[in-house]
Every structure is written in C-alpha cells, then in structure tokens.
Amino acid sequence: MQELTLITPTFLFSAVSLILLAYTNRFLSYAQLVRTLKDKYMEDRSKVTHAQIQNLRERLRLTRNMQIFGVASLLLCAVTMFLIYINLQFASTIIFGIALVLFIISLALSVWELLLSTKALKIHLSDMDK
Question: Which long-range contacts (CB under 8 A, 24 or more apart) does 98-101 make?
Fold first, then answer.
C-alpha cells in the first residue's frame, strides 16, 4: 500500500465540499416547497397533495442523512490530513478509507433521493391523467 500524502485527501475534500453545496441548495428548495405544500394542503386536503407531502418528508430525511454523511466524510478528510501531518500513516489510511465509505454512502443516498424526486413529479402530474 502506498503512503498517503497531504494531496490525496484534498481531492476528496474539494469534491465533498461541492456536493455539500448542492445538498444545501436542494434542502433550501425543499424548505420553500414545504411551506407551499402546507398552505396548499390547509386549503385543499387532496390525496395528491397528501402524497406529495409524504414523499417530501422522505426526501427531507434522505437529504438530512446525505448531509450528515457528507459532513462526516469532510471531517474525516481533515482528520486524515492532520494524521498525515503528524506522521501517523497507518491511522491516516484507515481514517481516509472510512471517509471514502461515508462519501459513497452520501452519494448513494443522493441517488435514492433523486428517484424519490422523480416519483414526486409523477405524483404531481397524476391528477392530469383524469
């Protein structure tokens, strides 16, 4: 196994930072959608609106978890860099591996959330089928 250098975790560091920015933008748009759907549901308690709210709850949960795993990955990248700096190569390799796994989990949750987002659009369009 090759030694990690300070450069290696910085690649993941920058990738995770960009992903977290995308997750934050997604979360902010969901916050606005929650407000809109709540007002709509209070006026008209339709099945379509209720289904959208249920879908949105699941998407918010996934987005929260995506952010948690992404932040944990980012934190472990910083720990990896510190461990490399103080010459603890074996520990840095293990921590960096865990950071990679957390990042992979975050991306997998993002795919799951994307599938739910597509389902939400289908729910939104379902009332046009009638």
Answer: 99/9, 99/12, 99/72, 99/73, 99/74, 100/12, 100/73
User: How far apart are alpha carbons 126 and 130 in whole angstroms?
Assistant: 8
- pLDDT, tens digit, for every residue of 73-121? 999 999 999 999 999 999 999 999 999 999 999 999 999 988 888 877 7
Distance CA 99, CA 73 (A): 4
The radius of gyration of the chain's CA atoms, rounded to the nearest angstrom, is: 20
- Longest Cα–Cα distance of the chain, Å, equals 66
Round to whole Å and give the CA distance between 97 and 93.
6
For residue 21, the model assigns a pLDDT of 86
Between CA 107 and CA 1 the distance in angstroms is 26
As a whole number, mean pLDDT of residues 46-53 equals 77
Can you give the pLDDT at residue 54? 84
